[in-house]
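re: that chain from earlier
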Amino acid sequence: MKFQDIELLFGKITPKQMLPKVTLLVLLSILIFVVTPMCYPLFSYSSLLKINKYNKHPESLPSTSVKKCNIFSGEWVSNPEAPYYTNNTCWAIHEHQNCMKYGRPDTDFMKWRWKPNECELPIFNPFQFLEIMKGKSMAFVGDSVGRNHMQSLICLLSRVEWPIDVSPTTNDYFRQWKYPSYNFTVAAFWTPYLVKSKMVDSIGPSHNGLFNLYLDQVDETWATQIEEFDYIIINAGHWFFRSMIFYEKQNIVGCCDCLLKNVTDLTTYYGYRQVFRTAFKAINSLQNFKGVTFLRTFAPSHFENGTWNKGGHCVRSKPFKNNDIRLESTNLELYMIQLEELEIAKKEGRKKGLEFRLFDTTQAMLLRPDGHPSRYGHWPHEKVTLYNDCVHWCLPGPIDTWNDFLLEMLKMEDMKFSSGERLHV
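^ sequence. v structure.
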């Protein structure tokens, strides 16, 4: 620095005065470089979130190291800071899952988070999610519980940006939304059986319909539309408690609770296995698909004191602990079928460079009997034929945690891709 420049900073000085002042400046610089790093821990993650709140498009995000552990094995613990949106701030909530609007008196069901046994699961960060998904797309393929999940995601992302509707149809069962600032598209493809199906009797033997399932023919309404998506989240489950007639090669091979003469009852398990096998084969046979498929496992219902059509309800207000309830009987069998078929799909997928991942929500949701709408899906005085809903989930509510899971899995995929572990052929 020229002497004239120093003079401007410190005033007119003599050469004799210059040495101690320069020395002081050097010492001050050293002190700043030593002390400042020690202060970094004082700037907490919550402080960064407060900064992001006022920064519409943050260029950098608080990173979270991903420790390898089974994030799906754990317990629900209290989270007083939840929820992260309300039924008043999010328009994406389906009416029948808008529990607070329709008078649910308790609020504790919204104030829990999932704590894995061996690590921490970070709360969903919408900025981080959208940065990871920039320029990408995600499809929810399955039943209305899958759509329930997508609506939770839209509500959580609303803290950053609202999407625009880019649906190619006016059919509410097939919606697509785009986040312009991130060029991220999310879509829902409603397909409760994953395979081609047809209602043949709206009542049926069990009073919830009788359906033909063509077990070896995938439902083309989704299978022909997903080739360009980067991620697929696939699910199916609750529709398999209805009466079904199973077809293969256009011929009846059996049924489930159909009560038809000379037709073998193959049980729901047979049909459940076959539809996942057919769906996964369809994905593996796509010519241009290079994405990742997540199988979101079955989320059990919680009807008590009766079935869905015989007065069953779900009025609990707190989660179960792990030692309070076990996965067993039908729920266990359906879960095991999904795991077995996923392993078969993985082996076939590797031959083509396709990836299948387990998105295991079964155990976590088994512990949440308090999270369903029950009778709070409509006004008490309304003349409706809706039964107590112990299948879908209140929003805000427990399935917001599914997006905690989802973001953590996307981080892992991002790390694998960056390190070259996941390269498609």
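Residues 1-19, 30-66 have pLDDT under 50 and may be disordered.
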